[in-house]
Amino acid sequence: MTASVTHRTIEAVWRIETARLIGGLTRIVRDVGLAEDLAQDALVVALERWPESGVPENPGAWLMATAKYLAIDALRRSTRLERKHEQIAREIGIQLAMDGSEVEAALDDQIGDDVLSLMFMCCHPVLSADARIALTLRLLGGLTTTEIARAFLVPEPTVAQRIVRAKRTLTQAKVPFEVPHGDELQDRLDSVLEVVYLVFNEGYTATAGEDWMRPLLCQEALRLGRMLAALAPREPEVHGLLALMELQAARSPARVDAAGEPVLLLEQDRARWDHAQVGRGLAALRAGARAGAHGPGHGPYTLQAAIAACHARARSAAETDWHEIARLYEALARLVPSPVVELNRAVALAMAFGPAVGLELVDALRSEPTLERYHLLPSVRGDLLAKLGRSAEARLEFERAAALTENRREREALLRRAADCATDPRTVAGP
Amino acid sequence: MRFMMFIYPGIQDEADWTPSAEAVAAMSKYNEELTKAGVLLALDGLHPTSEGARITYEGGKPRVTDGPFAETKEVIGGFWMLQTRTKEEAIEWASRCPAGGDVVLELRRVFEMSDFPPELQAAAELSEVPPEQTVSH
Fold first, then answer.
1. How wide is the angle at C-alpha A227 spanned by C-alphas A165 and A46, nearest 5°?
2. Would A400 disulfide with which of A45, A217, A344, A378, CB 3.0-4.6 Å?
3. A292 at the B interface (CB within 8 A)?
């Protein structure tokens, strides 16, 4: 490749290299803020030179070497010329002197570890959820502050501030740059998986942000999930999360109808699902099962993915294995007890054993304070009551649900169902 | 966006189709890079044309010709399915492929359902296969 390299090409290289570059630099300079600055400075040099010289043969190594030279300068110029800085600068000098392809080949595992360490650092529990998300998208996804701001519908300076503060917090808390091990690993991994799933859900459930950013967030979360599965293949929940995201994303083409109305899972046209993606999701689930074959049992992401897989395997809604889904929700409820999981279990039980069985569990949830303003509780209850022919009660529940939801389209759908109950001839004879 | 990346190995004699151990090792390393970057959705290598056939439609009637075929330059050796944010990113990945000799790589953007006008989307639904048949076990 010779001259006339465009900025878009350099952007592409940046996106590919950013995590490895910042990861590698953080390991060396032991400060993620400084590492990002150095990587950005190296990018500036590339933007100056590559349009003339063309993209170098190994752009990642070029950027890394450039950043290391800049690091030596920065560390030597540092006003607090500590012994530590001087020593790091010397180490980098030695590395640059012996930079050969043999050394590089030996470093393949190191690069994987650097990227993984960077993920753990960006998702460290010392940071707020918002800060973790912003930092992860910026340092591992190579997204710009503008893109992150648009995705989450917050002003750009807010995101910039969030990132600056997050980096400062990490430095002040002296968060080590490493892949955690032992007892710490599970908790820290949970935090990483949570951030990836939050990014996915932001794109998938679309609570805010510009339309075109949403698929981007889903894709970015999936990419992070695939990276994790490649870098930490022995962790079953990593595969579980990837499977869950693939299986959910596979339904995207069927989730809204031609008029833009949301379509519920059981009413979706299954022919419109992305079946290649379903296949990838099921493959990830199998990879997780292999990784966890000798482990303590399924984690929450794996269980949720297994539920999604039950839907994915059914050719039609009627063929859904509700017994299995009810069983999986029961396991999930034992693992992460939550009224919302119980509500889902109630739906599965109703489908498997009839509306009366489901209603029993739903009624037990009515005293649950956390569900007091949750529109899906009256919505589900209304549905079960309607199926049992108790139309008057059903109508009240649908109206209650409509008043609670913030989504206009959902509200309209609920009010339609309430109106249907009113015209049900059984209403008159009702209690 | 998704890109299908085709490889045209440009092999003159199909007897030389099987690559060397070194070439396989280099390609595996490349594929691992793609995997670790989270951009690889699928990939497969293809047997030479002697194991395949061409079905030519003349006036709507299929005519079968068994391989091998003469024009080796136009023979596909395998494919990758990549998901990237831009075409440039796909090109950058293609530029890193350890392909020697007279290899040609071709990137083709994959149609997403949303790229089709609504009437075509409706027609496409009819031709989709039910999930169970497309899922490999």
1. 65
2. A378
3. no
